[in-house]
Amino acid sequence: MKITAAKLIITSPDRNFVTLKIETDEGIYGLGDATLNGRELAVASYLSEHVIPCLIGRDPFDIEDIWQYLYRGAYWRRGPVTMSAIAAVDVALWDIKGKALNTPVYNLLGGRSRQGVLVYTHANGADIEQALDSVREHMEEGYLAVRAQAGVPGVASSYGVPKPGKAYEPAERGLPGESLWSTERYLNFAPKLFERLRSELGPDVHLLHDVHHRLTPIEAARLGKALEPYHLFWMEDPCPAELQEGFELIRKHTTTPIATGEVFNSVWDAHDLIRNQLIDYIRMTIVHGGGITHAKKTADFAAMYHVRTGFHGATDLSPITMAAALHFGTAIHNFGIQEHMHHTALTDEVFPHHYSFENGYMTPGDAPGLGVDIDEVLAAKYPYQRAYLPIARKLDGTLTDW
Ligand code: CS2
Ligand code: MG
After folding, report:
1. In which band, very low, low, confident or very high, does the pLDDT at 167 lie, cut at 50, 70 and 90?
2. pLDDT at 165 over 80
3. pLDDT number for residue 170
4. Which residues form the Mandelate racemase/muconate lactonizing enzyme C-terminal domain (predicted)?
5. Which of 90, 157, 267, 344 is most buried, taking the most CB atoms under 10 A from its CB?
6. 33 CB less than 6 Å from ligand 1?
């Protein structure tokens, strides 16, 4: 089999997505997600200018060799743009291989290790009462694990809380919006949120919380310690993680499990975190971390240190990444949990798929390949629109981590 063509489909059905479609001389095609929230066109141009010309004529079954060609062969390594572009190619090739062999991708990764993939979804509210209602609603839908975020009193536009009447969506069209942050107010508030949730909801539901890179290690240690009585499934991204050894300080003080890495793009971003057992869940996902090929190596490395996967799955990860993550989570042994933030109905229409949710678990379906497609005619009706993630400032105006 030979790759004959590859093209990009850039569409905005309620939010932007960049999709790579690789075609072959046998009529089989594969799809890969190349979406990097707020920097979409950088990946698109990396692919169209520098990657696609190198793919034509290659055998799409040579997934490892093509991965190495694009990674080592570029000389310039890593970074979210490069690794998202490589991921798009890699995932499209796994899709092609599954279709050509008439089997779902999870079978190419070792077969089924479990019946279903445990997922968590997002609950949020302007205050504790609303957040509690929101968690309850998701439990009624069948979720066994729910991430809870609530507005911090005295901090307008807190992270993870939607604008009134809208679903929560991290990116917004136009130039970057601004939000506010106060570590002091947040640290006083967050334990109260979970005290209430745990006492109302009982011991069984898995509660998760995203700190979104906003604390220093010692502040995160204080939070983790304060949250211990409410036994969270995890405390996510407590600090920016460029300084991997910083997590030692958190670990010294708390047994609250830690998940990190949605912004990572290589196993090297998590190397010390994993081998020093400073985290419990690795969040680097397929689209931003070099595809299924690199995620498999990362997960296997993590398995040796009792670290499980907990992949990022917000709305900026397209249904193609969601499908890939579900095949992956079905197959690998050290799967932990998968994030599931619902796409809009329009996004789901543009990307018809076979995956489904039931009683807290998702399954990828048994269609050959990834089991996800793109309706190109519909996609063309929703052209790209510039959009950004917000920035955050402290109450005195200092720019801080969003
Ligand atoms: C968040 C995301 O889902 C999460 O855990 O951290 O909402 C994240 O902010 C966005 O996906 C960024 O693109
Ligand atoms: Mg997060």
Report:
1. confident
2. no
3. 84
4. 128-257
5. 90
6. no
Cβ-contact 95, 369 below 8 angstroms: yes
For the record, the structure tokens of 215 come out as 């604390």
Q: Where in the chain is the domain with CATH 3.20.20.120?
A: 108-367
Strands (E), 61-205: 117-125, 145-150, 172-173, 178-181
- What's the pLDDT score for residue 221? 98
* d(C-alpha 369, C-alpha 112), whole Å: 15
- Catalytic residue (choose from 29, 46, 71, 159): 159
* CA atoms of 55 and 66, how far apart (whole Å): 8
Whose C-alpha lies nearest to ligand 1, atom 1? 314
For ligand 1, what atom is nearest to the CA of residue 402?
9
Side chain identity, residue 306: H
Location of each CATH 3.30.390.10 domain in the chain: 3-104
Cα separation, 382 vs 36, whole angstroms: 18
Question: In this structure, how many other beta carbons lie within 10 angstroms of the beta carbon of residue 268?
Answer: 12
Position 304 scores a pLDDT of 98
105 membership: H or E segment, kind and range: helix 105-108
Closest residue by CA, ligand 1 atom 11: 314
Q: What is the pLDDT of residues 181-228, one digit of tens each?
A: 999 999 999 999 999 999 999 999 999 999 999 999 999 999 999 999
Report field, pTM of the whole predicted structure over 0.90: yes
Counting ligand 1 atoms within 8 A of each CB, the residue from 312, 338, 389 with the most, and so the one to mutate, is 312
Domain 3-104 has CATH 3.30.390.10: yes
CATH fold group of domain 108-367? TIM Barrel (3.20.20)
